[in-house]
Design goal:
The structure holds two protein chains of two kinds.
Chain A (H helix, E strand, L loop, with lengths): L7 E3 L2 E2 L17 E10 L10 E13 L2 E4 L1 H4 L2 E8 L2 E13 L4 E6 L22 E6 L8 E15 L5 E8 L11 E4 L2 E10 L8 E5 H10 L13 E4 L4 H6 L9 E6 L14 E5 L2 E2 L5 E4 L2 E4 L1 H5 L6 E8 L2 E8 L4 H5 L10 E4 L2 E5 L2 H6 L5 H8 L6 H4 L4 E6 L14 E6 L2 E2 L6 H6 L7 E6 L6 E4 H14 L6 E2 L4
Antiparallel strand pairs in A: 1-13, 2-4, 3-4, 3-6, 4-5, 5-8, 6-7, 7-8, 9-10, 9-12, 10-11, 11-14, 12-13, 13-14, 15-16, 16-17, 17-18, 17-21, 19-20, 21-22, 23-24, 23-30, 24-25, 25-26, 26-27, 26-28, 28-29
Chain B lengths: L44 H4 L9 E8 L14 E10 L3 E4 L1 H4 L2 E7 L6 E10 L4 E6 L3 H8 L16 E7 L5 E15 L6 E8 L12 E4 L2 E10 L4 E6 H11 L12 E4 L4 H7 L8 E6 L4 H5 L6 E5 L2 E2 L5 E4 L3 E4 L1 H7 L5 E8 L2 E8 L21 E4 L2 E5 L2 H5 L8 H11 L2 H5 L6 E6 L14 E6 L2 E2 L3 H7 L7 E6 L5 E5 H13 L8 E2 L2
Antiparallel strand pairs in B: 1-2, 1-4, 2-3, 3-6, 4-5, 5-6, 7-8, 7-10, 8-9, 9-12, 10-11, 11-12, 13-14, 14-15, 15-16, 15-19, 17-18, 19-20, 21-22, 21-28, 22-23, 23-24, 24-25, 24-26, 26-27
The chains are: A mainly beta, B alpha+beta.
Chain lengths: 490, 524
């Protein structure tokens, strides 16, 4: 009943004082470069601030003319990127061309690509077999020069990508040492890239465990961006429940052939929302039979049925054969991204959104906010925790939290109400942060007052409009807030 | 349950070195003569050191208690011991706190000096007011003999702030240890179970830890002024359950029908915020508090109080902006005491409110919503949790005892979700549910193959029947369709099936097999 997410550590190294490696590394690896990133970590507690400057370092590799592949987490929140190679003392400024946080991949280019024209891009291989040897090449901690570690392929499985914290894709476990700084570097077999090193395993339980992003995930990313933009992964937005119980099999009218998985949960608004119902049994996806445990056979291997969805793109269709009340049926489902899911994951390269009114700070409820603030309000925790499971997103696409009350005479009685979720302002329902400014400006039942109704609170928060508006400039000046609101670019 | 001090094992001695002054047997136990009262105790600190102050009104009370396991409700936890002091009351009754006897399996009374013991049982208990009355569980002859030299203690309900009281303890050899304390504050505070807020006295002073940690009597001039509710050793704050609450409990229990303390059932908000007052139309200096919530089944709802009302007076007492009134005895005090401490169920009550700018007077009588009438039972002692075990699926009533057992885990995951449901049972109540039934656990049996990881789902329907309580579940489980039970859950996976024949086979296995489940259900 409680899912344990395995703790995974991302492998971008903290910055090291970089003595320039002037060395002739093996020619074939010249396209494997070190990436130095200067980053700005958004401040979700004081969202009007620029953020905290940080720096980090990782690996990338040339895959085409002035195109370097690396991990998204190596270059996330970057304000400045520099590429260095092992036999060139010069730092080369670079920039992100595409970044995909949901599969932790990014494509970079050097501002002046001519320096790299003479280098040979690396080639991709396929999915390596279990127990075959691979090497990881990169710039991990422990020195400045290029490093090589060796190991075998230990496991090929679907698992959580910790960069977003909510996306699971195919990943390959290797026992080659993969350390901070290896991130974004290639894992090679027979001279060809079979993966991008990206995460390890934290904690003392597991040993010699490193993970790489396999070629199908990389190629999906490269294909997705062919049209000039990244469209993200799509999701069926359906949770399946294995059929192991004989009574369940009988009641659902299934043959005893091991085929079929029950639909447990269907997310309204998700790709499958209009087609599938809880209690349906999925028999096949795109013609491949789905076994009772949710696996399908792809290229001779048994893999999670989501793997079929994984390889599709936004707008693609998938054919689902299902059983409902004993009757077999077929439907084509158009696949799309499931937005509510995204809020539960970490966000990068985004300026925090907020509204400050008379010292009351309103922010959207999302993972970054929860991580930055110690939210102790049980109602707010409940809403975040059950945003999906209790379908809160249907009525409340973006819960808004009164995160802080910046003390001033006008709001001195309201400080106890921080961390609560805002239900209404001046009689208008608040379904997203963008509703807040208009609702604050709107005249409610009594135009002389601004009335804010919080979830779970039995009294409205009341501000006299004239006093609140007079306080606005004073409070913003005192608390060093340059802009009273930032609502995003949309 | 909190132990007040560390509980030390106490050696009992058959004989005491101190000579006992013989006393005549009581003629009418219910009417103790003033002359027969224990030696008057002056609570002045100087006298507290006198080692030979004696009392005939205290007994040691030894309790063995054993709570049920909330996760495996057919089992009990390990028994534990509590030792405290009981105060002798008229008719050979002994007064202790309810906390002391919660989930008791064996209670005995012990004479401090002689060490003689007598089994006892609970005759009346109120877990909200945290008081219980014990009676000997023995023959009349033994009981009379045991109580013959004991003197009932009288109550003193006239304590005021500043009064000097003393806490009584009994040492290893039956000697009385008297610790002075002075009442510095009178307020309302939580007693023992959640939500039970009553009058307390607070005093400063160090209470040393002795073997008898629970239910220490607090005495003024030889009369019982209250029972020690808790002692905070870090801040040296003593909290006392006052005699007025004990008196209320005793009066109520004399007629054999215990009504308990009435409740108002109002969540109110202070009105100090000028902008809020202006919005509500309250004049500067006007009295009253904002009624934020009126709970169903309480006295306030009963007499027609509404959310948004401004409550200005109860029974003639003016309510200030913080929700306090001026009590003639104790000074500024929360209005909850007017209903919860002073009044009885059935007493008339008059409430003055401002509704939509107009004054209004509401009259009616005080009632009490019993804990068992709540959809989510707030507390339950002495009886095990209700449950039904079917095949391996364990169904329980959602209640606070279950949720409290998780402690810090309530902050996230399944328990946070269930806690949220427990705090918002209104939607379930509207559907006509008397209790909220949930699948709490799945024991690994063949009939439950594939369901082992489930737990924490609300049960909506079984075989098409809405599950309003465990009895409804029991009835529904008698009607499988084609030998299969269809169980609809409120959450993922929403629907599970159970084979009736396999379930019955597994039920037998659960009773006779390694789980040693004594009974497949408890429906009390």
């Amino acid at each position: 009943m409680i899912r344990h997410l395995l703790a995974a550590t991302l492998l971008a190294a903290p910055v090291l004082s970089t003595a320039q490696p002037i060395d002739a590394a093996a020619d074939e690896w010249e396209g494997i470069v070190n990436i130095d990133a200067s980053m700005l970590y958004a401040d979700y507690r004081e969202p009007w601030n620029g953020g905290q400057p940080m720096s980090g370092s990782g690996t990338g590799f040339l895959i085409g003319k002035n195109r370097f592949l690396t991990n998204a987490h190596v270059v996330s929140n970057a304000t400045k990127l520099v590429i260095r190679t092992s036999n060139d003392p010069e730092p080369h400024p670079a920039r992100i061309v595409f970044i995909a946080h949901d599969c932790d991949l990014a494509l970079l280019e050097a501002v002046d690509g001519s320096h790299f024209d003479h280098l040979k891009p690396l080639e991709f291989g396929g999915i390596p077999k279990l127990n075959t040897e691979v090497i990881a090449v990169g710039y991990p901690i422990g020195g400045d020069r290029i490093s090589v570690t060796r190991g075998v392929v230990s496991r090929i499985d679907f698992r959580l990508y910790s960069h977003s914290g909510v996306d699971s894709h195919l990943s390959i476990q290797v026992d080659a040492a993969i350390n901070p700084g290896n991130s974004g570097g290639p894992v090679l077999q027979d001279g060809k890239v079979v993966g991008v090193a990206f995460q390890g395993y934290s904690g003392s339980v597991a040993q010699n465990v490193g993970y790489m992003i396999p070629v199908p995930v990389i190629q999906r990313f490269l294909k997705d961006i062919e049209d000039g933009r990244y469209d993200h992964y799509v999701d069926l937005a359906v949770s399946d429940f294995p059929i192991e119980n004989p009574a369940q099999r009988r009641a659902l009218n299934l043959k005893n052939d091991g085929i079929g998985i029950m639909v447990g949960e269907v997310e309204p608004g998700g790709s499958g929302g209009d087609v599938l119902h809880s209690g349906d049994v999925i028999l096949a996806i795109d013609g491949s039979p789905v076994y009772n445990n949710g696996l399908v056979r792809v290229d001779g291997e048994l893999v999670n049925m989501n793997e079929i969805v994984e390889r599709k793109f936004a707008g693609d269709k998938i054919e689902v054969t299902f059983l409902r009340d004993g009757n077999e049926d077929k439907a084509n489902i158009e696949l799309k991204r499931f937005e509510p899911y995204v809020k539960l994951g970490a966000a990068y390269d985004e300026r925090p959104r907020y509204v400050v009114y008379a010292g009351l700070v309103f922010q959207p409820l999302e993972r970054n906010l929860m991580d930055a603030n110690r939210i102790s309000n049980p109602q707010t925790n409940y809403i975040f925790d059950n945003y999906l499971s209790d379908k809160i997103y249907v009525d409340l696409p973006e819960p808004v939290v009164l995160t802080n009350v910046l003390a001033d005479e006008v709001n001195t009685f309201l400080s106890a109400y921080r961390q609560s979720i805002v239900e209404e302002i001046n009689g208008r329902k608040i379904k997203a942060l963008s509703d807040v400014p208009a609702a604050l400006a709107a005249a409610g039942e009594d135009k002389d007052f601004v009335v804010i109704k919080l979830m779970e609170n039995t009294r409205p928060l009341v501000l006299r409009r004239d006093l609140a508006e007079a306080a606005q400039a004073r409070i913003n000046q005192k608390y060093n807030i340059r802009e009273a609101a930032y609502l995003g670019t949309k | 349950m909190k132990t007040l001090f560390s509980i030390l094992l106490l050696a009992t001695f058959a004989a005491s070195a101190l000579a006992q002054q013989p006393r005549p047997a009581k003629g009418k136990p219910s009417a103790p003569k003033p002359a027969a009262a224990p030696p008057a105790l002056n609570a002045a600190p100087g006298l507290a050191r006198d080692p030979i102050i004696k009392t005939q009104s205290l007994l040691k009370v030894n309790v063995t208690s054993q709570a049920y396991n909330v996760h495996l409700p057919w089992q009990k936890e390990s028994p534990s011991a509590r030792r405290g002091l009981g105060v002798v009351m008229p008719q050979n009754h002994v007064l202790v706190t309810a906390q002391m006897v919660a989930d008791a399996t064996y209670i005995e009374l012990e004479q401090p000096e002689s060490g003689r013991k007598l089994p006892a049982r609970v005759t009346a208990v109120d877990y909200e007011a945290n008081v219980a009355l014990l009676q000997a569980d023995s023959t009349d002859a033994r009981t009379t003999e045991f109580f013959k030299d004991l003197q009932p203690m009288q109550l003193d309900t006239g304590v005021r702030i500043g009064d000097a009281l003393s806490v009584w303890q009994i040492g290893q050899f039956g000697d009385l240890i008297v610790t002075p304390m002075r009442i510095s504050k009178v307020e309302t505070a939580r007693y023992f179970v959640d939500g039970s807020v009553f009058l307390v006295y607070e005093g400063a002073g160090i209470v040393r830890s002795e073997g008898n940690s629970f239910t220490l009597p607090v005495v003024k001039g030889g009369k019982l002024a209250g029972l020690l509710l808790r002692y905070d050793s870090k801040n040296q704050v003593t909290t006392v359950l006052p005699a007025s609450i004990i008196e209320h409990f005793l009066k109520d229990s004399t007629d054999g029908k215990y009504d308990g303390f009435p409740n108002l059932g109002v969540e109110f908000q202070i009105t100090l915020d000028e902008q809020f007052r202006e919005y509500l139309g309250m004049k500067p200096g006007a009295p009253g508090i904002y009624v934020g919530k009126v709970s169903k089944g309480g006295s306030a709802a009963h007499i027609g109080l509404k959310e948004g009302d401004i409550l200005t007076a109860i029974n003639g007492f003016r309510i200030d902006s913080r929700g306090n009134y001026k009590d003639p005895q104790y000074g500024t005090l929360s209005i909850s005491h007017i209903v919860r401490g002073k009044a009885y169920v059935g007493d008339p009550v008059t409430i003055k409110v401002m509704r939509e700018g107009e004054p209004l007077e509401l009259k009616g009588e005080l009632i009490r919503k019993r804990p068992e009438d709540e959809v989510v039972t707030p507390y339950r002692f002495d009886r095990g949790p209700n449950y039904i075990l079917a095949g391996g699926l364990l169904f329980q009533e959602l209640n606070d005892t279950y949720l409290d057992a998780f402690g810090e885990d309530r902050r996230s995951g399944t328990i946070l979700r269930l806690s949220h449901i427990a705090q918002h049972p209104e939607a379930f109540e509207k559907e006509g549910r008397k209790k909220i039934i949930f699948l709490s656990l799945v024991l690994p049996t063949p009939s439950c193959q594939g369901y082992e990881r489930l737990g924490g789902q609300i049960v909506n329907k079984v075989n098409g029947q809405v599950i309003t309580d465990l009895q409804a579940l029991k009835t529904a489980l008698e009607k499988p369709k084609d030998g299969v039970h269809a169980i609809q859950l409120g959450e993922f996976p929403h629907l599970i099936y159970l084979d009736d024949a396999a379930m019955k086979r597994d039920d037998q296995g659960l009773i006779n097999g390694s789980f040693r489940v004594g009974s497949l259900e408890r429906l009390e």
